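quick one, 167 residues, struct below
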Amino acid sequence: MAKSKSITRTTFRFSGKLIELKGAFTYCCVLVPEKVLKQLPTGRLRLKGFLNQVPIDLAIQYRKSGPRFIMVSKVLARQAKVKTGDVVTVEFKLADPNKIELPEELKAVLAQDEQAMEGWKKLTPGLQRSLSYYVKSVKNVDSRIKRALEMMEKIKLGKLYIQRKKS
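---
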């Protein structure tokens, strides 16, 4: 266990070319070098750090038969001022995969609505992170409040897309 505690404090750095991976979807990514992967624990990994000095909070992705990589969205590429073929620098530390930073608007809705909080606690950390990102991805405070209320209402009614699939 001591190894995992010290590894969360370790800063990893590498450079790589921004490439397109094609499959069911095509997306831009930077491959994580094998020498970096050998230093990391196995399993699902979340990281916090920087891509060309732009803050990132992402997961290392993988395909069943293929490389491990960090996905680079169009928004992130624009912020980092890079395009496919450019070399990027990635610097990161491992992050707690269960820790989710909630926007204030979502915190307020959850604090005031016990039923919504019960439903929220039943969601996986990954889904909580996705919903949190959806709420905080708009700049307007009123829109964030509206999104938080809408998502919590869907959770309470069991109408969130993931809840509908289960029923």
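Residues 141-157 form the longest helix (17 residues).
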